Amino acid sequence: MADLPTHTIVFEILTRLPAKDVGRSKSVCKQWYALLSTQDFVKIHCSRSVVSSNQRVLLIDDLTCSVRPIISNNNDYGPSSTVTFPFHHQNNDVSILSHLNGLLCVCLNHTYELLLWNPTTTAFKRLSTPDSHGFYINNLDAIGLYVDADDDYKVLHIKRRSGVLGVYRILFLLFCLAT
User: How far is the CA of 60 from the CAs of 2, 93, 115, in angstroms?
Assistant: First the structure.
C-alpha cells in the first residue's frame, strides 16, 4: 500500500473530533491552525458531526445554558454540561432565531441586539449595537443563516416596517466563530 500523505491522515482524523477538541488542536502548530481554519475543513467537520451519535440539544433556562447529548434509542437526554454565556444578558433574555452548523443567531430581548454565537467555542459577534433599538423587532422580522455559492456564511434579515419589506444580507467571517 502506498504511503498516505501526512496532511490527508491529519485531515481525516481531525474532521472526526468533537468541535471543542478541534479548537484546542489549532494551537498545536501553524500548519494545523491553517488547516483547521479552512472552509473545506469546517464544511467536512460539520457534515461528519450530524450523525445521530453526535447530536446535542442546547437548553436555555433563565440565566443558565446547558448542552446535553441526545440518546437516540430512547429519545432521552444524557448528562448535561454547562455553557456560560459570553455576553451580558438578563433573566429569560436570550432567544434563538436561527442556527447553522453549530452557529446560533440569537436576540437579546430587552435590547433587540442580534448576535452570532458559537456555544462550543463561546465566540460571539454582535450584529447590532445595544443602542440600535428597532434593529430587530420580534413579531415583524425574520432571520436566517445560510452559505452562499462562494461558501461564505451569511445572515439574511428580513424587516417589515410600515408595510414595506426590506431584505438585508450580512456577511460574517467564519474563522472567528467556527470550531
Answer: 50, 10, 16
Sign of CA dihedral 20, 48, 146, 37: positive
> Cell numbers at residue 56, please?
446535542
Query: Distance (Å, rounded) from C-alpha 150 to C-alpha 1?
Result: 37
Most confident of 6-10, 50-54, 61-65, 144-148: 144-148
Handedness of CA 148, 105, 173, 121 (dihedral sign): negative
User: Interior CA angle at 152 toward 101 and 26, to 5°?
Assistant: 60
CB neighbour burial string for 81-112, b if at least 16 within 10 angstroms, e if fewer: eebebeeebeeebbeebbebbbbbbbbbeebb
Q: How far out from the chain centre does Cα 128 lie? A: 17
Separation between Cα atoms, residue 73 and residue 57, nearest integer Å = 15
Q: Which of 168, 118, 170, 102 is nearest to 141 (CA)?
A: 168
Q: What is the dihedral of CA 145, 20, 151, 132, to 10 degrees?
A: 40
Q: Is the pLDDT of residue 103 over 50?
A: yes
What distance in Å separates the CA atoms of residue 59 and residue 66, rounded to the nearest whole number? 5
CA of residue 113 relative to chain centroid, distance: 17
